[in-house]
Design goal:
The complex is a heterodimer.
Chain A: H1 2-8, H2 18-27, E1 29-33, H3 38-45, E2 48-52, E3 56-60, E4 66-70, E5 75-76, H4 78-83, E6 90-95, E7 97-103, H5 104-113, H6 115-125, H7 148-151, E8 158-159, H8 165-175, E9 179-184, E10 187-193, H9 194-202, H10 212-215, E11 217-218, E12 223-224, H11 229-239, E13 243-247, E14 253-258, H12 259-265, H13 270-279, H14 283-290, H15 293-301, H16 309-333, E15 340-344, H17 346-350, E16 361-365, H18 371-390, E17 408-410, H19 411-423, H20 427-436, E18 440-443, H21 446-460, H22 463-474, E19 489-491, E20 494-498, H23 500-517, H24 525-531, H25 540-564, E21 573-574, H26 581-606
Parallel strand pairs in A: 8-9, 12-13, 16-17
Antiparallel strand pairs in A: 1-7, 2-5, 2-7, 3-4, 3-6, 9-10, 10-11, 13-14, 15-16, 15-18, 19-20, 20-21
Chain B: H1 2-18, E1 26-34, E2 44-53, E3 56-58, E4 63-66, E5 80-81, E6 84-85, H2 86-90, H3 95-106, E7 109-113, H4 116-130, E8 138-141, H5 142-151, H6 165-171, H7 182-199, H8 207-212
Parallel strand pairs in B: 1-7, 7-8
Antiparallel strand pairs in B: 1-2, 2-3, 2-4, 5-6
Helix pairs in contact in B: 6-7
Classes of the chains: A alpha+beta, B alpha/beta.
Chain lengths: ~600, ~220
């Protein structure tokens, strides 16, 4: 029936069983509500849950302040149902309509028989609406989302570099392991594997008392424990190794992951894409593989719980392409003449990359390079950026690419650039800051990059500068119009909202300001927010709200992009009329959270307040 | 003699009631789905009604009944007829009991329907066939209300299709429903009725004045 069909699309009634919903319908009353009778109805019927079927009504507080504009599918009246407190809000009718009324007794009964139904109202009451998910999603944790730390179970087996190879072999044999970490003074200095013993000791006929230091692989690739399994996999495939040491933030080894560990965890296709990228022997092959990315994402997205991890997947794949292009360049032009780091900025750096993100990258170079060496890096920048473009990662219109000489520099040269932006914060300089402060090394020794990042972080802890960033964030207003209605822009593609510009980017900007103030160096917004827990500037609740809003919006955007991929529809513009009732409510909540957070940074950092 | 007195008492009672504001009366919205327009030749497939105490519509006591007419109904090519499936006919109601309930519901209430001609013809036919009286206080025809309203503007003659239930509802911004299910049409008619009554000028709202616009 009509009413049942309506409730089926009206959360949280969609979570009820068919039988429960039919029962709910039998308990409903319905009223024709207009300006003449609306407050009388509220008074006569309460406490009750009111469900707007048609018409438009404004819910106003006792002081006349507008709380919410209610339209078809909106609910009201539940705070007093849950708290038992007197209703003080008043209604004003903007357009007459039909309102369904579920009396308290029926509401309580439904809360008792349906957990999701009860949960919904408790969340909504506590403004926790964004964690509400469609009920058909399974709770299974997606493997690529898991951190490396979570699959490292055994404490690391390690020895010092002055141990003899015989001792080492005994230790490995008694622990039943095929590789062992070499650690001096808590720092990882090398790795020794079965293969090393075979190829470098036995085959060479070396004596058994030779020191491990002489035959181990020095300064091996490693992965941080808080990185995803996807990252471990990309590192392994790109370096063609099967044992990957896992280290903590202090670069101390905490264990090891092997290819077998990952294969055991693996359940999806991106693995094959990444290894295909790794195996590509020429740029043509690489481009061919890279072109399959959107299709892979489509199938992958339908199997993962949170599509927001696709942003990390995209970044991982882009990292993989970058590494492979660098590898191909080295094959033609010889190995790098000096230590360097390939930097990813912007969305690739933050790991919230999308199918339409363009390149943002640069090179961190060693001091004292000769002109010839500089030419090698200039050629690298040209080659890789051009290659990425062919792979479908478009060139940056703002020319923030390693092919641009301005984006190649030593630590001191980069510091000079940052200092000039911080000291003369023109709009362009601030825009650069929003991109360049979100950086991550794709290739190169970790220590080299970290030295750079620490020095940059120190520069940012500048009150004036942070104040300017806070003012900039407040220059963009969220698309909530009068009465908390979603405000759309009239474009050629209909009335839409750009959720990147007015949503995700704003949260990124806000999280960046807090984390720059705290001296944090991680680029991704969720990681920044996680690290900010316990900060006295951003309370836990607001922190959590921002994260939920960010996750909701990135998920919404990716779902949209997958839907419009291959068409010329805009990739970040959402038509709110095409969303489900729940998503529309969530979108409003997300924008409300952003609005409050903007005001928060305005007050805390710019002193002007907004 | 007694019958005559009773009629007079009923007439007087009715007159008094209709002097009251329209919101104080009880209304019953009704819809009948049948195999055709002629009660002598065609059969009632389903009937639905619902009580209204303005502005409240009571979903809980809405009634919906399907009649099987003693044999498997031939649905022909289409799997459904007026939204009814073969399955619905398996749970059919007993006519005499159903009409008895309707008779009690209409007692002292105003009958509300869209295009009263057909529904009323069927009710009169049932009255004769089963000896069950239907004596509502009055009948409010939502179609007649709309027709009278549109006719007040002689510049714009009424077009075909302007008076269907869904076309009328649209003019009051009421939501789109799937038509031709007796219960849905009953709800739709009830909502339209409330929208129409609330749209009349506040000063002329005794039941008689409102009803006059809808017959």
């Amino acid at each position: 029936m009509e009413v049942n069909a309506f409730l089926k699309d009206c959360p949280p009634f969609d979570t009820l069983s068919e039988e429960q919903r039919s029962w709910a319908v039998s308990q409903l009353q319905s009223v024709y509500m207009n300006e003449e009778n609306c407050n009388e109805i509220m008074k006569d019927m309460r406490p009750a849950l009111f469900i707007v079927r048609s018409g438009v009504f404004d819910l106003r507080g006792a002081d006349g302040r507008l709380i919410e504009r209610l339209e078809s599918g909106d609910l009201f009246g539940y705070p007093s149902l849950l708290s038992g407190r007197e209703v003080v809000n008043k209604l004003k009718t903007i357009e007459d309509g039909i309102v369904y009324i579920l009396p308290q007794s029926a509401f309580d009964r439904l809360r008792n028989v349906s957990k999701p139904f009860e949960q919904y109202f408790i969340r909504a009451h506590g403004q926790r609406l964004l964690t509400e998910q469609k009920s058909d999603e399974n709770d299974e944790l997606d493997w690529s989302e898991q951190t490396v730390g979570s699959v490292v179970t055994m404490p690391p087996v390690s020895l010092t570099s002055d141990t003899s190879v015989q001792e080492a072999a005994k230790l490995m044999s008694s622990n039943g392991i095929s590789s062992v970490l070499v650690v001096d003074d808590t720092q990882l200095v090398g790795i020794l594997t079965d293969r090393d013993l075979r190829n470098r000791v036995v085959a060479e006929g070396l004596p058994l008392d030779v020191r491990v230091a002489a035959v181990m692989t020095q300064l091996p690739e490693s992965v941080y424990e808080n990185r995803s399994l996807m990252d471990a996999l990309t590192t392994m495939t790109s370096s063609n190794i099967h044992h990957l040491p896992v280290v903590n933030d202090q670069n101390q080894p905490v264990g090891m992951v092997t290819a077998t560990d990952l294969i055991r965890q693996q359940r999806s296709d991106p693995v094959f894409l990444i290894s295909a990228i790794r195996k590509a022997g020429s740029k043509e092959q690489l481009v061919e593989e890279a072109r399959k990315l959107p299709d892979y994402l489509q199938t992958f997205a339908s199997r993962v719980k949170q599509t927001s991890i696709l942003g990390r997947l995209m970044a991982s794949v882009t990292d993989g392409m970058t590494r492979q292009l660098i590898h191909l360049y080295e094959q033609e032009n010889g190995a790098a003449p000096a230590a360097y780091s390939w930097l990813a900025f912007g969305s690739q750096g933050r790991e919230d990359q999308t199918l339409s993100s363009d390149q943002d990258n640069g090179l961190l170079l060693s001091n004292g390079l000769t002109d010839k060496q500089k030419d090698w890096f200039a050629g690298l920048g040209e080659y890789v950026c051009e290659g990425l473009n062919e792979c479908g990662i478009p060139s940056c219109p703002g020319n923030i690419m390693a092919s641009n000489p301005d984006c190649r520099g030593t630590i001191d040269e980069w510091k000079k650039r940052f200092t000039s932006w911080i000291e003369s914060p023109t709009p362009k300089a601030l825009m650069y800051c929003q991109i360049f402060f979100d950086s991550r090394p794709v290739v190169g020794p970790g220590k080299f990059y970290q030295e750079y990042r620490k020095q940059i972080a120190d520069l940012a802890r500048n009150e004036m500068f942070l104040g300017n960033l806070a003012i900039l964030v407040n220059k963009i207003s969220v698309p909530l119009g009068l009465f908390n209605r979603l405000r759309t822009e009239d474009t050629d593609d209909g009335d839409t909202i750009d959720i990147k510009r007015y949503g995700i980017a704003l949260i990124n900007d806000i999280a960046r300001i807090y984390s720059l103030q705290a001296g944090l160096t991680s680029p991704s917004t969720p990681a920044r927010l996680a690290a900010l827990k316990g900060s006295n500037l951003l309370n836990r609740r607001d922190n959590q709200s921002l994260l939920e809003a960010w996750e909701f919006l990135t998920q919404l955007r990716l779902n949209h992009q997958l839907k419009v991929w291959g068409t010329d529809k805009p990739k970040n513009a959402i038509d709110p009329d095409e969303l489900s009732t729940l998503s529309r409510r969530q979108l409003k909540t997300a924008f409300k959270i952003i609005k409050e957070a903007q005001q928060g940074v305005g007050l805390k950092f710019s002193r002007q307040g907004y | 003699m007694a019958q005559w007195l009773e009629k007079l008492a009923h007439w007087y009672d009715r007159r008094q009631k209709l002097k009251r504001p329209w919101q104080e009366l009880r209304y019953v919205a009704l819809d009948i789905e049948s195999t055709g327009l002629d009660p002598k030749k065609h059969q009632i497939l389903s009937i639905a009604w619902m009580t209204i105490h303005p502005p409240v519509m009571h979903y809980g006591n809405a009634q919906y009944h399907v009649f099987a007419h003693g044999q498997e109904l031939e649905l022909g090519q289409s799997p459904t007829i007026h939204g009814l499936t073969q399955q619905d006919f398996l749970h059919s109601s007993e006519p005499r009991q159903t009409f008895g309930m309707l008779s009690r519901a209409l007692n002292d209430a105003v009958l509300v329907c869209h295009h009263k001609g057909m529904d009323w013809r069927f009710l009169k036919h049932i009255e004769a066939e089963y000896g069950i009286p239907f004596k509502p206080l009055a009948v409010f025809d939502t179609l007649a209300f709309e027709k009278n309203k549109l006719e007040r503007n002689p510049q714009q003659p009424i077009q075909g299709g302007q008076l269907t239930l869904s076309a009328c509802r649209k003019r009051y911004n009421l939501p789109d429903y799937h038509a031709h299910h007796a219960l849905t049409d009953t709800l739709a008619c009830a909502e339209l009725f409330l929208a129409q009554c609330y749209s009349t000028e506040k000063d002329h709202r005794d039941a008689r004045a409102v009803l006059k616009k809808a017959c």
